[in-house]
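Customer escalation, tier 2.

The customer says the design service returned an amino acid string that "doesn't look like it belongs to this structure." They asked us to rerun it and document both sides in this ticket. The original structure tokens are below, unchanged.
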């Protein structure tokens, strides 16, 4: 009886997981279908999953109407710089936070929790004034600074968990051999943190790549706007969307995050498994 109950529970878990995956995949699959549909199918009263006459006209029209390549280059620059800077700053901070328990570590943990509770709208006015005094309004570097500050708390919390998983005995052995704190962090701890650093950088990159609100407020000239902001230009003056080109551009905008995650996922899992075996 217990065996049958266990199988039923497991089947129920798999069914719930399948429903959840379908729920998550539905918008993306519909986006792909819309991107390849001609205009007459987009206006049909009986929509279909698979386009009857698949076309690339929506992609051509999207590139003709908006500067997608320039916007993608701006997004890529902001996301890469923000991810690299956040990881470089967060790694030594996470080490101190994980290894030295005290007031500073408690304050850092509190900062991580509190910073995630503030909505964007609450901080945008003081943030705008600060960047204005620094002459960083309408500047990619100003946007990068905002992305670094916004992603740093979660990156710090995430890396601190990876640091705690590294055996302290390895650092003690390095200290016995005469290595200082900086040398130990750089040559002993950091290599073991590689999967965590990659995962944290991926999180910071995807967060910056998909961010819309700060980019909309801080970037004014079309030449500096990022991809999420340019996607809104496919909406007409009365809020009517140019659905085909919008779906095509949105599909292209989601590809970098998906490809990057697919490429790095195995390395993250392999690195964690290797670290567990060594431990």
């Amino acid at each position: 009886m217990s065996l049958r109950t266990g199988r039923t529970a497991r089947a129920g878990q798999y069914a719930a997981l399948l429903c959840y995956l379908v729920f998550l995949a539905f918008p993306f699959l519909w986006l792909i279908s819309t991107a390849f549909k001609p205009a007459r199918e987009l206006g049909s009263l009986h929509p279909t999953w698979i386009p009857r006459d698949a076309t690339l006209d929506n992609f051509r029209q999207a590139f003709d109407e908006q500067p997608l390549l320039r916007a993608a280059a701006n997004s890529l620059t902001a996301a890469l710089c923000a991810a690299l800077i956040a990881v470089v700053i967060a790694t030594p901070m996470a080490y101190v936070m994980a290894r030295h328990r005290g007031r500073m570590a408690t304050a850092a943990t509190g900062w991580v929790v509190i910073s995630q509770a503030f909505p964007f709208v609450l901080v945008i006015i003081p943030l705008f004034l600060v960047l204005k005094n620094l002459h960083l309004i309408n500047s990619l570097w100003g946007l990068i600074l905002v992305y670094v500050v916004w992603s740093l708390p979660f990156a710090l919390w995430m890396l601190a968990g990876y640091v705690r998983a590294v055996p302290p005995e390895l650092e003690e052995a390095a200290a016995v051999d005469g290595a200082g704190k900086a040398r130990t962090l750089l040559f002993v701890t950091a290599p073991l943190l590689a999967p965590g650093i990659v995962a944290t950088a991926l999180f910071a990159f995807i967060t910056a790549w998909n961010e819309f609100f700060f980019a909309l407020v801080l970037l004014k000239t079309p030449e500096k706007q990022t991809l999420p902001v340019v996607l809104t230009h496919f909406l007409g003056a009365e809020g009517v969307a140019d659905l085909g080109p919008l779906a095509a551009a949105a599909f292209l905008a989601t590809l970098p995050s998906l490809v990057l995650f697919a490429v790095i996922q195995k390395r993250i899992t392999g690195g964690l498994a290797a670290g567990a075996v060594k431990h």
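Tier 2 assessment: The sequence is consistent with the input. The chain has a mean pLDDT of 81. DSSP finds 13 helices and no strands in the chain. Sent an explanation to the customer and offered a walkthrough call.
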